[in-house]
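Private note to self, pasted from the team thread so I don't lose it. C-alpha cells:
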C-alpha cells in the first residue's frame, strides 16, 4: 500500500518504506492529534513522539525495498 500524508517538515525530503501495521500501532498508541515523526534516512530507525509529552517514544524500523 502507499499513503500520502499532508505534513510540515524540516530538512531534506526522505522517502522511507515502513510496515503499515507497525506504523499504525505506534500512531494508535500516541492517541493525540499532533505527533512528531523523526526520520534520518530511508534505512535508519525512525522515532514517533507525542508533542508536548516526553513520556511516549515509539521506535520503528524501515523495510528495505528490493
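Design output:
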Amino acid at each position: 500500500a502507499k499513503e500520502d500524508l499532508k505534513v510540515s517538515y524540516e530538512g531534506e525530503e526522505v522517502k522511507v518504506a515502513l510496515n503499515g501495521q507497525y506504523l499504525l500501532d505506534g500512531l494508535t498508541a500516541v492517541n493525540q492529534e499532533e505527533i512528531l515523526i523523526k526520520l534520518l534516512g530511508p534505512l535508519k530507525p525512525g522515532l514517533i513522539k507525542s508533542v508536548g509529552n516526553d513520556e511516549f517514544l515509539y521506535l520503528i524500523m524501515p523495510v528495505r525495498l528490493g
